[in-house]
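Example record

One chain of 161 residues, shown exactly as stored in the release files.
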Amino acid sequence: MGSGKSSVGRILALRLGFPFVDTDHLVIDATGLQITEIFKNHGEDWFRDQETLALESLADKGRRIIATGGGIVMREGNAALLKKLGFVVWLRASEETIFKRVSRNQKRPLVQTANPRETIHALLTLRTPLYTAAADFIVDTCGRTHEQVADAIILEAQRGI
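Predicted structure tokens for this chain:
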């Protein structure tokens, strides 16, 4: 959340000539509901179910750049599925950077809490080991433009080819 996944993903897709897919958009298209509506009316577990279905729908679809929700690793099996789909990158950002980026957006249901900074800290504490285990490459986005992050990802991916 707030790491730049969608922005960097679009840049990578343009540079590499692959389609760009955002699993949040797949969920919205499949359900006809915005993410905030899903969380409000159906809860996070139902959203995670839909997110997993969206990820599964990408198997055998060919090369593409995929941006996922930050909590996709919370569902058992999703990290393995991501690995099957391709090169997995964690766009890491500091708590402070994430807070600055997400506090401007009222459409982020997981930080619509009494203390968003505390929520971000708790989410990162819980998710960091999962991100680390899932990632083939970790790139820090703090102090870098989206273009610089994309450059680093392309360079690392080329090393692995």
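Notes: The first helix runs from residue 5 to 16.
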